[in-house]
Design brief:
The complex is a heterodimer of chains A (about 260) and B (about 270). Chain A has a domain at about 1-85 and about 205-260: Rossmann fold (3-Layer(aba) Sandwich), CATH 3.40.50. Chain A has 9 helices and 10 strands. Chain A starts with 8 loop residues before the first strand and ends with a helix. In chain A, about 40% of the residues are buried. The radius of gyration of chain A is 18 Å and the shape is globular. With about 260 residues, chain A is an alpha/beta fold. In chain A, helix 4 (about 115-130) packs antiparallel against helix 5. The longest helix of chain B is centred in the last third of the chain and has 39 residues, at about 180-220. In chain B, helix 3 (about 60-70) packs across helix 11 (about 240-265), helix 6 (about 130-135) packs across helix 7 and helix 9 (about 180-220) packs parallel to helix 10. By secondary structure, chain B is mostly helical. Classes of the chains: A alpha/beta (about 260), B mainly alpha (about 270).
Chain lengths: ~260, ~270
Amino acid sequence: MVGGVKMNYVVEVCNLGMKYHSLNGEIDALKNINFSVSEGEFISIVGPSGCGKSTLLSLIAGLIVPTSGEVFVEGKPVTETSEKVGYMLQKDHLFEWRTIYQNVILGPEIRRTLTADTKEYALKLLDTYGLLEFKDKYPSQLSGGMRQRAALIRTLVARPEILLLDEAFSALDYQTRLAVTEDIYSIIKKENKTAILVTHDISEGISMADRVIVLTKRPATIKKIHEISLSCEKRTPMCSREAAEFREYFNKIWKELDVYV
Amino acid sequence: MSNKNSPNISPQHAEYLRKVKRRKRTILVTQITLLALFFALWEIAARIGVVDPFISSQPSRIIDTISNLYSDGNLFNHIAITCVETILGFVLGTLIGILVAIILWCSEFLEKVMEPYLVVLNSLPKIALGPIFIVWIGAGSLAIVVIAMTISVVVTILEVLNGFLGVDNDKIKLVKTFGANRIQILTKVVLPASLPIMVNALKVSVGLSWVGVVVGEFLVSKAGLGYLIVYGGQVFQLDLVMASVIILSVAAFLMYKMVALIEKLVVKRN
């Protein structure tokens, strides 16, 4: 796989390594990470807390520069942030001083690509996902689920090819979280985006993913990559949780994570 | 939200709303009564000779003094001078303070370099610099404004810079994923997110600016409420001192309320 034809992969991560420096010494966050993601694929990355999962996403997004190795997005090495990559953070971080509409056009506004076409696209997305009537409302007037959806639309308006979800649901309470996961998953599939989800929640990881990458403790390396194939009629996070194989995957990954209290 | 205006509120809720209203009114009435009582007792005590009105003054004489100032045509002149100096002091102090805070936010190096100086300036009673400004600038309104500004500017820098640095890092990360540069981070996230803190700094500055102006007027001026106070004290005319202090309290109260109103308008969304 490695060194093969790059065109087929949307994201390629090659021998990636990352070290942090502080006065207390050097921290090895990531070591020798290799994987690639095909178009439309949904990848989950699980690992023990503090193992460098978020670092990995920041590297793919071009927010930080790796110590060694390289990341390719659509065959081009990542050197800075690009509109091809959309990033979703743990909280929705909608700006309270902007209306929903002003919030979702934030990306193009910063990139100075805010054309009539983009505005129309933003409105279309708001309409498709049921937020059009709230476009002039402020975030505090929306429910948690709606806010998360607005945050996803904000990411989608920039027309990214890949979505990076950094613990994107963990700030929500459990019920809302299940519903939002379902919601966001269907939107991502409908928009046919490639997605990489980082999570500490094994169930969440399996329920959404085509493949689950298990990372080791720091310095994080890839322990195992699981191809997830579940026998359910329609692949949604909820249905996935009911599939017979779900528990097996869960148990395997749980053992691999090697958690001790 | 819609509950408040809906016509069919339950009798219990109506009762609750009435109670809240009544309580609010009671508080206001008590506040006014307390003030009236204070002045009434003062007046009575002066009249029956419990206190010496030559030293303590008395409300009726204060009113006479104010109306004399008014008929001389000087009253509003004095008030205006002090108010303008104060407003200039805190507006300039806040603006310069915010500007410096922005510069320090932009350069972490500069911020670290300036830190000890700001700490010293903050703990130094700025009034001590008054004579220096007077020598440099001259004994006039400008020196007074500069004193007032100096008092509010340091606090504003520290407050606002703290606010800037306290902005959620993830919010900054978010705009960085959209490729924002340093200036965009400032204008799209840091400034709007810190708006409440900046307005609050304005509120603190108002109070400090009054201190600066009155002390400045003590030192140099030929007009203004601070001048009246210090003049009244020198010629042992307590009526004039008390009258000026009361006018000063009212003016300070009104100005604070005005800034609070601005705050309400500006910070609706945060």
